[in-house]
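can u pls check wat happens w/ zinc ion
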Amino acid sequence: MLWTARLCLLFFVSSLGVPVDRYSTKGHQKLLLISFDGFRWDYDRDVDTPNLDTMAKDGVKARYVTPPFLTITSPTHFTLLTGRYIENHGVIHNMWFNISTGEKQPYYATQFKNEWWDNGSLPIWITAQRQGLRTGSLHFPGTQPSYQGESQTVKDVEPRFYNYKNETKWRENVDKVMDTWFGEMDLDFVSLYFGEPDSTGHKYGPDSPERREMVKQVDRTVGYIRSSAERNGLTDSLNIIITADHGMSNVYRNGLVKEIILSKIPGFSFSDIAFHLVDFGPSGMLLPRKGMLDTVYKALKGAHPHLHVFKKEEMPKRLHFANNNRILPIILFSDPGYVINGFFPVQTHKGEHGFDNVEMDMKPFFRAVGPAFQKNLEVGPFETVNIYPLMCHILGIKPEPNDGHLDVTKHMLVSATEGHPKDFKSNIFVGLAAVAGFLVVVFIVLVSFHVFKKKTNYTGSEKSVPPESKEETHQTPL
Ligand SMILES: [Zn+2]
């Protein structure tokens, strides 16, 4: 009888949800984080996207999200993985550089510069693994390095000269993640990266028919991912977050605008510069030679109506792009439509990113679906630093110190740890039903016990009933 009572009590307490935290069921909820590079928040407005629409009905859609500044690929992806602003996680640029030697490495080579990435902030893969989960990453920026000597359980680093557009390859990558990593290997967290529609947006511009075609390919892939989840029996355990690192904006040149060419600005000379990162879209950084900081700054400040020039210490606080030794003393960025050229225009892209993160063209999209998320819910915009604490919460892991907060996103979840009102009501109902069930069981057990005792007395087993008990059983029932 005691075990029955214990069982009922346990069921009652659990159903009230008081001491049992749903999200502390470590490992029970899986998570797939997907980035479609450069998918601007409004790319679904001029293209039919049936699969993204279905995902929004089945889950949560944010109007848009705000990436950190500098709005370029590696820094913003590392914010997704760490929940930190760029000045706090230290991956401040797509390019590794050394101001002493003047050496610069492009985006792909920088993926292999371990010290560029492993500089104090732990990405979610490592934090999750230290807390008993198993993780994987496919092509996501930051996948290749190790962090404090640790790597993901499995990783697939993007090959050199990878064809970002190949839809067959996309499906092979999805199959690897869904069938092998989640299905067979039972991983808890995977990050998955696609280099589109960024490449197409750069080459043809964000308003081009080529970009719209690429968004259709993204949409087909979203449908394929969701059907793969279903095929692998993951629908009830796997949460999927789809977002991006930044948006895309049109660039104007060839006489349409007065281009920004630093060497043509009166009073500015590259001979005053010890090291520079320019000719890289709309942003740049300069290290003036010793004693030349003010000369360079005064020459550039106000020199072009669409060029913003800041000393590091003057950078607007809201951009969170100053407080790091890797950031150079002068920071430049242009308004949408313009890029920053050094000696003469060498950039050919029709679309660019890297602008101020207040610009609507820089905002990525955000969708989420799965057992942790509400259905058919559209939410307002939020900063992408908040995706990290949301992911940690879903996985049931303790986050590293970060710049985001769960309060910003927890209304997307079906049940926060505090208990959702709707769930609380249903829990009360289930709890009361359990109490009633418990009382019925107690009643039945007591009656059965009484009948059993009477029956024992009737059969008159001398051995099993001590004399004094036997004496009592002879009493006339009241
Ligand atoms: Zn990107």
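The domain at 260-348 is CATH 3.30.1360.180 (Gyrase A; domain 2).
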